[in-house]
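Support reply, case 0932

Customer input (verbatim):
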Amino acid sequence: MNVRRSAAALAAIAVVGAAAAPAVAASPSPSPSVAKPSGLFGSGDPTYDGVWRQSLALLAQHTVGVEPAAKAVDWLTGQQCANGAFAAFRADPAKACDAKVMVDTNSTAAAVQALAALGGHDAQTGKAVTWLKSVQNKDGGWGYTPGGASDANSTSVVVGALTAVGEKPDAVRKDGKSPSDALLKLALPCADGGAFAFQPDKAGKLAANADATAAAVLGALGEGLVAEPDRKTAAAPACSDGARTPAQAAANGAAYLAQAVKKDGHLVSALPGATDQPDYGNTADAVVALAAQGGAQQARQPLAWLEKNAAGWARQSGPAAYAQLIFAAHATGTDPRRFGGQDLVAQLNATGPAPQTKATGQDTEKEKKDKKDDGSPFGVWWFVGVCLVAGIGIGFLVSGRRKGQQL
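Our regenerated output:
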C-alpha cells in the first residue's frame, strides 16, 4: 500500500524535506550499519524501514493466527516518541525524541494498524492517532513528513490506521476537508485510465502511478493494509467519469490496475536508465486492492503470477515482502502456507523472533513439522488413536500440506 522505494532514495528525499513514501519491501542493506536489536525482524539495516517492516511482520502474523514474540511487540512499542509519533528507526529508544528525530506518518500509521490488530495497546495507538490528526493537511490528506504536501500513499495508510482504531476516516477533517477529498484531488479522469497520481508535479499536473493507485483504491474504500477476503463476484471494474465519489474513484483505480496487469500479470518498475523490471511489491498491493474492490476473482491473474514468481524476491527482500504476499493471499482467500509451493508464514517467522506457542489455537512450528513428517493433517497421535479404536493397523495416508522454506 506504499511506494516501494529504495532506502537510499528515501534518505535523499528526507534530506530535501519532500514528501515521500517509505522504503518498505527490501531491507536496505545486507550488513546493518547499526546494531540489530534482538526483537527486530529482518537482518538488513533498519535505519530507513525498521518500524515499517516490523509493523507489517506483526500484522501479517496476527492475520494468519500466529501470536508474535513479546519482544518483537515490545521493540515496536519502544520506538514510539512521547508525542505519539514513530520514526522509521530509533537506535536508542531510551533517548527522548527531539527535533532531530524525523518522525513520519507512514511509520506511525503502520504501527497503529499492527498494534490495533494485536490489541491491548490503546494508549499507544491513541497517542499515535492524536499525532496523526495534528499533522493533517488543509486539503484533508497527509504527506510523508509533517508539513509535506499530501500524497496518495501517505493519506491512504493513515486512513487504514484510522479505520483500525474504529474511527470514521471522513469524519477526521481539517478546514472542512476529509481524506477522501484529498484522494479525489489526485484521481485522474478515465481518459488517463482512471488511475491516481502520487502527488501533483511542480506544474500541478497529475501523472498516473500504479503504486499510488493500489494504495488509493484501499484508502478510498476505507481499508487498511489487510483487506478481508470478499466473496462477492463483481463484474470487471470499469472506469466512469460520472459521480466523483470515493467508491467510484476506487472502481476507476481498480480498472486501471486490471488493465496494467492484463498483459504480463504484473506491474512494472521503471527506474531511470534501467530496463523495466517486474514490480513484485506493487503487484502484491494491486492484488489486495483489486480483491478489496471487486472480489478475489478480479485479482486472479496477478495472484497467479506472484505464486509462480515471487519466492526469490521475498527471500531477498525480507519480512515486509513476506508480509505483502501474506496480505495478498489473505485478501483472495488463498492459503499463505501453500502459496505457490511456499509456506509464507514459516518463512516470515524465520526472519524474526520465534513466535509464541499456540495461544490462539494455531499450531506451533514443531507441531507443523510433526504433521508434515507424519503426512497426516491431524498428526501422528490422531493416527495412532484411530488405529487403536478401530483395531486395525492401517490408517489414511494423506500428503503433507506444507513445505516451508526457511531463510
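We compared this against your earlier run and they match. Two observations from our side: The CA atoms of residues 266 and 283 lie 6 Å apart. The longest strand covers residues 267-269. Please reopen the case if you see a mismatch on your end.
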